[in-house]
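Weekly puzzle thread! Below is a chain. First person to post its structure in token form gets bragging rights.
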Amino acid sequence: MKFKQRHVQCLSPSGLHRMAYTEWGECDNPRVLVCVHGLARNSRDFDDLAMALAGHYRVICPDVAGRGLSDRLRDAASYDIPQYVADMVTLFARLDVERVDWLGTSMGGLIGMALAVLEGSPINRLVLNDVGPALPVGALRRIAGYVGADPTWVSFDEAVAYVRAVSEPFGPLGETQWRRLTESSVAQRTDGRWGFRYDPRIADGFRASFADEDIDLWGIYERIACPTLAIRGAESDLLTRAVWQSMGERGPRAVLIEIPGVGHAPMFLDEDQISIVRDFLLAP
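Winning reply:
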């Protein structure tokens, strides 16, 4: 199944920007699933999941501003959750939908949480992939150590090796999967070298969001009312087991699923992981 590549024009305090998104399935399907990637990733992470669910949903996978095929923001200070939430509301208007199901990986999950607690929220069901209402500073420092770096490589194979090294927590993926994840994440530049397809300034707001202490978002999580699934990579350092277990007891009392052999974060590139999402979303 092929996807359609589209875009929508959004507004930030510094002007207009285009947000790209892929669309899978029938455009008149009233059931819509929005899948949003992590901090330095992009919409193509969800290709396998989208193909598997396109018979049930109109699947929409945006490139958050500054990533993938979306425009970079003029002011780096706008790379924050409120701007991303505003962009998603614009996307919903473009899609002409009032209700959506939401799957968010890491940053995408935080955007989903922020949307889910708004009065009149469009979120019907929420899947939080390896993210929760307490973010440990150690994991944040690890991510800050590589996000925003702007390395370049002589060859695509060198790029694959780098992506594989920094993304090792994704789990035991095959060579073809690593190459696909790299292909969507890098581009060849005018000098012939390869580099990441994101604005390095996305790291500025991320680093400014924590100051040598954990981030506590329980006040937001406990206001979520929609059915919620919390997926955890069993070796994750961002979503600790204690926080994950508490997510099943507080707020929306999330359904809890843990995936062995994976850290931060599961990528839904095999049927076992995809079926977890499918079963939750399609449950009566």
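Puzzle host: Confirmed. Bonus trivia for everyone else. The chain has a mean pLDDT of 96.
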